[in-house]
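To: structure desk
From: M.T.
Subject: fold request, one chain
Message: Could you run this one when you get a chance? Sequence is below, nothing fancy, just the single chain.
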Amino acid sequence: MTVQKTLFPMPPKKAAKPKKKKKARKLPGHYCRVCGRRRANEKFSGKGHAAHICKDCAKEQRAEVKKKRKIAASPRAEKNFFSNLPTSLPEELIENVFQTEAVRIERIVSTGQSSPPDFWYDQSEGEWVILLRGEATLQFQRPRQTQRLSQGDYVYIPPHRKHRVLSTSEKKTTVWLAVFVKQPKRQWSIRRATLDDIPAMKTLYRETITNICAADYNAEQIQAWSSTAERTDSLAKRIESQCFIVAVSENDEIVGFASFEEPDYLDLMYVHKDFQFQGVGGSLLAAIREKAVEVGAARIVSDVSITARPFFEKQGFRVVKKQTVRIGDVELTNYKMENPLCKSK
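Reply: Done. Structure tokens follow.
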């Protein structure tokens, strides 16, 4: 069967065009240009631009404008922390911004100044300081370290932690905000040590060496020295045979201890790392002096570390000789010191 070809073939059918979606017909009424809601029964007031805002939105806009006008009309602060900043100063500028019995706030402005050589700040207050502008470098004595500060950096300096300003930026004016806080007077009492105090004394002994003495001894010496804290039997023997006393805080925390071996030897004396320069050491030494006078000692002798030497010198001790002691294979330097006593009549 043969298929006859058509002389006039039919053109191919075109693809059906997709039907366009009819736009949603807006319901009759007014539409707010701010919130977009339809208000069928509300006639907008105003002309032009204002005629397209509903009453609720218009009320909010009026309240916002009123608030901005009120803020603009309010008086400005009397002073600004960054006002009147000098570009050069012969010496550092320190201004007292605010002060109460417990808190003092200062603005400090530097233009390249630094602390004199061998000068150290030794403050009885805690200091929180933030660098608001410029750059500076602080140096701390114990432990010996330097700390660079840039804009926004802050640091807390505990009471009596000796420090100095090593440098400040000469290109930019450096602005400090320093907050000084007086430390509350802490109370403690002195009592005889007991065997139950040994765990707390071991912790105090180890932490004081690692935190306070690290400025004067190297890491190997600190490790060897602090390892002797584990000699529990040695502490127990001293408690039983010596005049061994502890300083106890109001929270029943041991904040220091000392031991005296007759006739005249001050064997141990350590103060908690967080109670340095607060009088604990002086209270312990006063109690030891009373005991030494009671037993008829003409003097008190002790082997004193490099770190503790300044304290004992302030308490009337003098250096007899510099000496080297060994803990295992490690050598450490200390001083033989003595303090003459006035015997009671």
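Reply (cont.): The longest strand covers residues 330-340. Let me know if you need anything else for the meeting.
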